Amino acid sequence: MKIAVIGRGGREDAIAHKISKSPRVDKLYAIPGNPGTARYAENINIAVDDFKSILDFVNAEGVDIVVPGPELPITKGIKDFLEANSKAFVFAPSAKSSFLEASKIRAKEFMKRNGVPTADFMSFENY
């Protein structure tokens, strides 16, 4: 199985490290990755928000699973885009489902509105 982890941070390093331990993984890519991910994966120099280039790479390499780490590609709809245009499964919420991740204030307001326990908060527009 071929897997691509999208992102360049510590979170993606940890994800790539864990995935690399699976005997079911034949090839692991990190897009764009970092020096840490290079220990377990092949780093591919594509920006996390360059969906077209990511799609081209996923299709050319026959990637089976894509794991986006950062919020940016998730909230911009990478799951929807890749699953509509490739055979890869994307382990992430859809753009619509990621609305809570996109804004911390939106998440807090949602929790208050729906009775989900959360710490008190205040929102400021001018500071």
Strand content: 15-25%
Which structural category fits the helices and strands? alpha/beta
H/E element sequence: EHEEHEHHEHH
Question: Low-confidence segments, ≥5 residues, pLDDT <50?
Answer: none
How widely separated are the two ends? Answer: 50 Å
Tell me the helix content: 25-40%
Form type: elongated
User: What is the name of the CATH class?
Assistant: Alpha Beta
Number of strands: 5
Brief descriptors of the model:
127 residues; alpha/beta; Rossmann fold; five-stranded parallel β-sheet; 6 helices; 5 strands; 39% helix
Care to describe what's here?
This is Phosphoribosylamine--glycine ligase. Residues 1-101 form the Phosphoribosylglycinamide synthetase N-terminal domain. This protein is an alpha/beta fold and 127 residues long. The chain has one domain: Rossmann fold (3-Layer(aba) Sandwich). It has 6 helices and 5 strands; from the N terminus they run βαββαβααβαα. The N and C termini lie far apart (50 Å).
Topology:
Layout lengths: L1 E6 L2 H11 L6 E6 L9 E2 L7 H11 L3 E4 L2 H5 L2 H8 L3 E2 L8 H4 L1 H10 L14
Parallel strand pairs: 1-2, 1-4, 2-3, 4-5
Summarize the structure.
This protein has helices spanning 10-20, 51-61, 71-75, 78-85, 99-102, 104-113, and strands at 2-7, 27-32, 42-43, 65-68, 89-90.
